[in-house]
Amino acid sequence: MNWMYALYATYEQNRDYVGRIDKEPTHGNRKERLITPLLPLYHSMQNAHITITLNKRGELINASLNNQNSQPTIIPVTEASGGRTSGACAHPLCDKLQYVAGDNADYFPPEESPAKRTKQLKTLQASYEQYEQQLSEWAAFDPGNVKLNAVLAYIRKKSLIRDLIKEEILHVEDSTNTLLPVWKGDKQEMPAIFEILGASTQENAFIRWKINNKDGNPPEVYEDPAMYESWRIYTESKANKEGMCYVLGKTAPLATTHPARIRNAGDKAKLISSNDSSGYTYRGRFIEADEACGVSTEVTQKAHSALRWLISRQGWYDGDLVVLAWSPGLLKVPSPCGNVQEWEHYTLDQPTPNDQVTQLVKQFKKELSGGGKELLRTSLNENDIKNRVLVLSLNSASPGRMSLSSFQEFTVSEYLNNLLSWHSKASWKQHLPKDKEGNDRSYIGAPSISMIVKAAYGIKVDDKLRKHALSRLLPCILYNLPIPPDLEKQCVIQASKRHAMEWWEWEMTLGVSCSVYLYNHPQTNTSSSDTMSLDPKITDRSYLFGRLLAVAEAIETSALNITKTSRPTNAEKLMQRFQQRPSETWSMLEKSIQPYRNILKKNENTVSFLRSYDAYIDNIMETFLMGQFMDNGPLTGAYLLGYHCQRAFIHKTKEEKNAELAK
User: Fold this and answer.
1) pLDDT at 49
2) Which positions ≥6 away from 561 have C-beta within 8 Å?
3) For the chain, how far is it from start to end, CA to CA, in angstroms?
4) Taking the model in full, what pTM does it have?
5) Alpha-carbon distance 612 to 145, whole Å?
6) What is residue 528's predicted lDDT score, i.e. its pLDDT?
7) Which residues does 133 contact at the CB level (< 8 Å), separation at least 6?
8) Spatial separation of the C-alpha atoms in residues 660 and 532, rounded to whole Å
9) HEC letters along 372-399
């Protein structure tokens, strides 16, 4: 199954969602947001600022401003206007004032020079005429459509801007009687239109229509299924060029342009484009663009609409990079890019045609909380077993071009078991940035791929390097492959630079580095059922040196607490050097902690702590194999595991320590 056919099939299997505008509820720090709907054929989504209400004779009843929550509007588009980027190209029904208002030239602020003004007037006139002609042709094709005829009758009066000024929706300068470009007065007196438009000017106000007609249909033109169907039939009646559709494998009307706005409303990048007829996009191999890639209008419209809808529902973003995982029949599946915390709060935002996805997610979460020791056993019926999970990633090659970076296909069980394996094998204590109230946040589980990249290269990683690293990590999770060795090494190096990071950032880097190393080297900890527990039987040289570092840090920290001194310990300051030359650096640490040992020895409340610390050091030294301690070579990531486990063990109660050692 190729990616475009998969999206086309998703549209076909989920027709119940077409035209339905849903919202994702508030979750944690994330506010309620609109989900881009699965659009009817030959339609797009646009934020409309003004709603104009007419009667069926095309007479103005009133005009109103739309608040931010009510602005999203489904509008019909032509093949050209659906992907317009520059130049005059009118939408057929709802559009900006430039196209809809026949009196635009009277009120648009004029250009400074006569030559530019002449060009401006021609553009404004051409924009309105193009809009009026398209609407007239559509109305002629569907003469019984009351709403179309009402809008057409009104716009032919060429009084739209004048009417909006009378309704106090738009505002003009007194001296020139042209639309105010910006509001320069008191903010308390700012007209509502400027607040709604934000950085845009009044000329960019987008118009939608409402027709008061007692025929039982919705008065809102943009919510009427009959209008969607009317535009579809009209558009398909004009199709003339047919050819082989490479997706369906049959002859059908071919698309000459393809939709944009895939990732968001302002996204101009296209996945399919062949408008460079004078360059070498396809010339030299083909005479016409459709010889290189023939896609029918129906397929590209449905596939792009499904892609927008899915990305809005469940896409994972990192700048321009988008990763999408879905199943055509089950729709929502766990993302390979997130962390387990996201799935602990997983709820279905909307009902699905098949409730099996609910059972599937419940089973996934159950196995996840149980440590993922067994393969995922789902209760899918025979039809659902045939479902596939598809994963694709998109990235911008340039502002106008988008690339399909990868596309993979799995069975439902294969995908979920691979994902479960990652989350169980890479489970460790992870720290996140503090929340808005300044509280620490942490969880036990696998890190997200973004956390791994930040741990390897720092939180201010270069954009290009970050995207490249993310694309390398994704197959590791999808196919149970090891994390690339250079990324693992970089995580260890970065985690050793403790002095260069804030506390939470270093704790995050430490937790992620432990996860990555443990995932790549699961044999490091085999004698304990809990991989995060201290294992005194492990004889790995790096693990033991990490334990020594944690004890040295604990001795100095305890002494500093007694003297009420706040500063980094020698273990923290020498951590990077310790990772490179452990044996040599330990000799330095032993000398540096001697004064702090004396402080603990003299204090009755802490002398018992010192005995415990000395016992830890003696036990660790006895565990080293012959010649290991004198080896001064760099430590592997296992030293971070030993350090983390020993540090956690020191702070546990006596009962907890006994229980842990008894495992």
Assistant:
1) 96
2) none
3) 49
4) 0.83
5) 87
6) 46
7) none
8) 10
9) CCCCCCCCCCHHHHCCEEEEEEEEEEEC
**Pairing state of beta strands 206-212 and 50-55?**
parallel
Structure tokens at 569: 């310990």
Phi, psi of 567 (to 5 degrees): -165, 165
Listing DSSP states for 419-485 in one string gives HHHHHHHT-EEEEE---TT---EEEEEPPPHHHHHHHHH-TT--HHHHHHHHHHHHHHHHTTPPPPH
d(CA 45, CA 208): 12
99 vs 198, 369, 624, CA distance in Å? 21, 57, 80
- 388 φ, ψ to 5°? -115, 155
Tokens of 489: 């090494």
Query: Which residue stretches of the chain have pLDDT < 70?
Result: 1, 25-31, 83, 85-86, 275-284, 341-386, 524-531, 654-655, 657-663
Structure-token pair, residue 229: 């169907």
Q: Which helix (H) or strand (E) holds 641?
A: helix 638-650
Contact partners, residue 275, CB within 8 Å, separation at least 6: 257
Q: Is the distance from CB of 34 to CB of 264 less than 8 angstroms?
A: no
- Give, in order, the Cα–Cα distances in Å from 465 to each of 172, 450, 456, 478: 50, 12, 11, 21
Residues 6+ apart with CB under 8 A from 223: 19, 74
Q: What is the pLDDT of residue 655?
A: 66
Please give the helix or strand (H or E) that residue 5 lies within, else none: helix 3-13
